[in-house]
Amino acid sequence: MKGLPIGLQDFSDIVSNNMIYVDKTKFIYDLASSGNKYFFVSRPRRFGKSLTLSIFENLFKGNKELFKDTWIYDKWDFSQTFPVVRINLVGLNCESLEKVQLGLYMQISTIAKKFNLNLKFLEKDISYGFKELIQSLSEKLNSRVVVLVDEYEKPVLDNIHKKENAQKMREFLRNFYSILKEEDSNLRFVFLTGITKFTKMGVFSSLNNLEDISFDDKFSTMFGYTQEELESYFDEYINIYTDKFKVDKQSFLEKLKDFYNGFSFNGVDKVYNPYAVLCFFSKERFSPYWYESGSPNFLYDYIKNKNIEITDIVGKKITESDFTSREIENATIESFLTQTGYLTFKEREILENGDVWYKLDFPNRDVQTSFAKLFAEARYGMNQEERYELIKNISESIKNKDPLKLKNALQETIQSISYRAFKASENIPELLYSSWIYLILAMSGFNVSMEEEQILGRPDIVLKYNNEVFIFEVKIDKSVSLAIKQIKEKNYFKKFLSRSVYAVGISISSKSRNVSEVLIEKIEEVKM
Questions:
Q1: 117 dihedral zone (left: phi>0; alpha: psi -120 to 50; beta)
Q2: What is the radius of gyration, based on Cα positions, of the chain?
Q3: How far apart are CA 510 and CA 513, in angstroms?
Q4: What is the pLDDT of residues 107-119, one digit of tens each?
Q5: Do 92 and 80 contact (CB within 8 A), yes or no?
Q6: Which of 36, 364, 422, 525 is 20 to 30 A from 273 (CA-CA)?
């Protein structure tokens, strides 16, 4: 049985150590043989960008034996080889421009030594040294050069809260990458990756022939595992897990999808995060692997500084142009969280005028639950002990359909949130109460959605738990029976009748500014 390549980003290591490689070489072939030579893709961290660059590197170096079991093996001319310049910004120290330049200097000089090149200008100017490296390689080997750049914008991202530093980094990188256009005649192929997209006036302003495939349907599943790939490549691991824990295979696959699938880069096709899948099969337990591998401290500071609410994030729509209209430090919260992977495209709408709009939501339960916990702490100051008691009480109240326990848990938490977020004299709108309840349920680990669109309207919250669905309706100074009546009259439950469905009415008192009553009622289909 093949091993799990957790953390491996070198294609030769994966092949030589008999690790699973989910074959994406059809995409590699389409790009490398397209006739265009400049490409860019943005993807969140841990989606295989570095591995993809390694595959390109081995392809252009002609390492045919590594591709023996892949789609591209008998379709690519491996006899044609090219020198490869691979620039990796992932590990750079980006505290200052000088340290970034030093890091790039070391990478360029190392490549030059490998080919016995003496670069005259590298000591004086990093950008000219980069230019000289491409020219010298092309001249010495009588060949065009391949350039691969990993996380092109990291120096800017690392200084996102220091605008002056970010601008200095951007100006330097703009000059550095402009060399790629100047050296067009000496280049065979250029592929750049990053977490965020660029603006027309930003880092790539002078590289206007760069083809951005980030939202391209043809490449929407190039990064990440599709459902078909998961079930094919990991079939042995799936069977081992289901046999060991004596669970139904289909139920297990549904739970795996709920936790780790749902990332979409075009609003249509969905993929799993590769890192989360590999970690799951290695540790054999559900845990927020992708989320915990990132930078929660960075996200914590971002949420705290932006002073946002959940209503500013969930269910929002964003146009494709929003991703290229501003630099990342000035980006809207929606575009920032989408590009970094905390939100994803759930739906896509193409208008008559050609505008493309996407509806945003959390990709899966891994991200939703973890983000909700962090959000509650960063925005409302809820500590770990408070969250533990809350999660325990909310979980028990939902599992036991206990309205009194649910009311008490919501009251205690909303009192805490309200006190920390608003002055006592302010009115709190119904939508904000709904968003707090959504946040509380999401923190508790449930699969929840806000204002799911239906024919006759949108229920405030829908919670799915095992084979049960709970539909929440929140009212201010109105009875819970009225909330239940709305759920029934507008048929919010119709699409869920294959499961057991419960209506949950929640009444908010404007006087106490908190939950006053909760009613949970099972819905039976009424035949007209």
A1: beta
A2: 26
A3: 5
A4: 999 999 999 999 9
A5: no
A6: 36
Token representation of residue 84: 């490869």
Distance, CA of 528 to CA of 60 (rounded, Å) = 67
Nearest to 293 by CA among 271, 321, 274: 274
pLDDT tens profile 50-99: 999 999 999 999 999 999 999 999 999 999 999 999 999 999 999 999 99
Per-residue pLDDT tens digits for 316-325: 899 988 887 7
d(CA 496, CA 484): 16
User: In 3-state terms, what secondary structure has residue 453?
Assistant: coil
pTM here is: 0.92
HSE-up (13 A, CA, CB side) for residue 41: 27
Average the pLDDT over each of 247-261, 369-383, 415-429 and give the range with the smallest value. Answer: 415-429
> In what helix (H) or strand (E) does residue 279 lie, and over which residues does it extend?
helix 274-283
Q: How far apart are CA 358 and CA 475, in angstroms?
A: 29
Q: Are 318 and 338 in contact (CB under 8 A)?
A: yes
Report CA 325 to chain centroid distance, whole Å.
Answer: 20
Q: CA–CA separation, 214 vs 401, rounded Å? A: 44
Helix residue spans in 33-73 (DSSP H): 49-60
